[in-house]
Each structure stands twice: as structure tokens, then as C-alpha cells.
Amino acid sequence: MEMKVNPLNNWVKTSRKVLVIGGPCSVETPEQFLSTAIEMKKLNVDILRGGIWKPRTRPGGFEGKGIEALKWIKDVKQATGLPFATEVGSPEHVELALKYEVDVLWIGARTTVNPFTMQHIADALKGVDVPVMVKNPVNPDLALWIGGIERIYNAGIKNIGAIHRGFTAFEKAKYRNLPNWQIAMELKRQFPDLPLICDPSHIAGDRAYIEEVCQRAMDLDYDGLMIESHINPAVALSDASQQVTPESLGLILNNLIIKSETSTNAEFISQLEKLRTQIDKLDKELVEVLSARMNLADKIGEYKKDNNVTTFQQGRWDEIYNTRREWAGKMNLNADFVSEVFKSVHSESVRRQEEVITNLSEKV
Ligand code: PEP
Ligand code: MN
């Protein structure tokens, strides 16, 4: 389906080239929220974030202050002039958030996984004009993420953004959630106009890694960042280890190298053109080599047919797999990458041999 979403700069003015959403994981007390918000304003953050309802994995944790906290939002918005964003997980949340003039809504990773809930939320959004951001589902399922976005789009919301917050892993890894950057890149490829925002806090899970995840997002041309910041992270009621002080957030934002998709530097443009001409030439040779290789595979197919030999031969595949990996190592290439290439080449060879055999059989 074709989605015509509004690019980010149509629904929010950013003070930098990149949208920055900052604020605490949870809105805890009027003082905590106001003091954090004032610091966010000083840092030129574009949108203030704060959880009103917190989806906890296990019961008994801090589940957010709910309506009580919604009542504090107005004063903080007035004091800072910043729009406020929060997570909604049900039609009731949508109704209450809108009643208390929340400016931007997002749907959390634990909600995006459930098409029933997504549809209920989408139904509650019909006829409403509010930007909605959809976080990726906890599992690495791009279709489910897109499906959630489509439900919101079909409800008539045109100001939509996607938030990449990483995917649950069973094994303990460096980051709390696996980034699987290629999933977000595929979303961007399919929907180039859909604003893509990175949530380094929930990817990293540890404040020590926030900066490197932010930079990675900039290198990959994300449109924005949503970073958790708390006036005193040590006493935060949720996600304490990943929240940064406003001071650290300031340093992170200052250190960030914001990159562009192009450059006007003439020297850069001419060097890039030269190197790309060489790449084009090599790619053409690669295609020619692949074509010659497939012609040989077709011939083998004919011999295999005449001698009743299977198209797939495990021994031959093992030999291809191992030797190509070895060659890769000697040529300074990543062996896994080369294996992937040859898996694809070999399965195409087998497919073509099947085709040769079928065509020859039909002629008989
Ligand atoms: C959050 O943003 O605080 C949150 C709970 O996020 P997620 O849905 O990504 O876990
Ligand atoms: Mn959080």
C-alpha cells in the first residue's frame, strides 16, 4: 500500500537538522518533571517526553502516575513552551491524553506487537489530528511494524513517525535490545518519507552507550532521536541505568556529528564520481562473471539429467562453501559475507539446473 505521510519538518519545527525528543522515562513528580523540562528547554530539545503509563514486563514495578501526572503537563508546557509526547497503550489512554492536551502520542514496543490493540488505538484516533509515532515491535518483525503504522495511517493520521528502539534478545548482549539496524534501514527504503527516529536509550539500556548509538543513527541518516533524560537518574523510578542527566545530554548533543546525504564540496563530488565509475565497471564485470557461471551450471544440468544425478550434491556444496570462505580470508573479505553471496549463487545454480532438467524432460 502507498502511504503518503508528512515528512517530519511538516509537523514539527526542529531547531537542529535532526529532531530531538528528550525527557524522563516516566513523569514521577511535578518537581522532577518541571526541573527536567526546564533543562530540556535550555538544550533546545524540540519535544518533551515523559511516560504517564508505563508498561512493565513484570507486575509490581512502577506503572506510571497515570491521570495524576497528566494534570501536571499543562503547567510544564506553559513554563517551557515545549510540546509534550507520551506513550499510549489503549483507547482509554488516547482519550485521556487528548483531553489533557498531549501534543504527540507514541505507541510502545509492547503494544505494536498486538494487531488487536493497534486496531483499537487506531479506531480511537479516527478524526483526530495529532502526530503519532509507532515504535518497532519487541520482536524483529518488519511486517508487524509496518502493519501497525498502516493501521494508524488508515485511521486518517498523516503525521506519523517510526521509532526504532531495538529488539528483545534472549542472550545477554552489550546492548539491552538488539539494534538490527538493517530492519530500520529496510523500513526507510520502503517508506522514504516516513520520519525515522532512533531511541538510543532503549537500544543501549546503559547510559555509557547512548552517545555511540546516537552517532550510529546519524551515520545512517535518521531524522530524529528520542533520548531519556532525568534530573537525577540515580533515583529514577524506571530505566535508571539508561537515563542521562541533562548535562550529559547536552554533551552528547554537542558531540554529535550530524551528517548529510550529500555534500557540496567539489573535491568530494569529483572523487566520489571517480570511485563510483570504477565500482560500476566492477559491478558490470561481476554480472558478466555471474552470467558465465550460470551458463556453466546449465551445461552441468544437462549432464546431470543424462546421468540421473541430483541437482543438489551436498559434498560439492560443502567444498564450495569451505573453499570460498578460505579464499575470502586471504583476500581480506569477511568470510560470512562471502558465504552469504555463495549461498545465493549456489541456490540459483540449483534452481537453473532444475529448470534445465524440466525443460529437457518436456521436450522428450
Ligand atoms: C519508553 O519509551 O519508556 C518505553 C517503555 O519504551 P519501549 O516501548 O520502547 O519499551
Ligand atoms: Mn524507558
List the helices and strands and how they pair.
Blueprint (H helix, E strand, L loop, with lengths): L7 H4 L7 E5 L6 H13 L4 E3 L17 H14 L3 E5 L2 H9 L4 E4 L1 H4 L2 H11 L6 E4 L6 H13 L5 E5 L16 H10 L5 E3 L1 H5 L5 H10 L4 E5 L17 H10 L10 H41 L7 H17 L4 H29 L1
Parallel strand pairs: 1-2, 1-8, 2-3, 3-4, 4-5, 5-6, 6-7, 7-8
The protein binds phosphoenolpyruvate and manganese (II) ion (MN).
Structure notes:
- With 364 residues, the protein is α/β, with parallel strands linked by helices.
- It has two domains: 8-255, Alpha-Beta Barrel (TIM Barrel), CATH 3.20.20.70; 266-363, Chorismate Mutase Domain, subunit A, CATH 1.20.59.10.
- The protein has helices at 8-11, 30-42, 67-80, 91-99, 109-112, 115-125, 142-154, 181-190, 200-204, 210-219, 246-255, 266-306, 314-330, 335-363; strands spanning 19-23, 47-49, 84-88, 104-107, 132-135, 160-164, 196-198, 224-228.
- Helix 4 links the parallel strand 3 (84-88) and strand 4 (104-107).
- Helix 4 packs parallel to helix 6 and helix 12 (266-306) packs across helix 14.
- The radius of gyration is 26 Å and the shape is elongated.
- The two termini are 45 Å apart.
- The model has no long low-confidence stretch (mean pLDDT 95).
- It binds phosphoenolpyruvate and manganese (II) ion (MN).
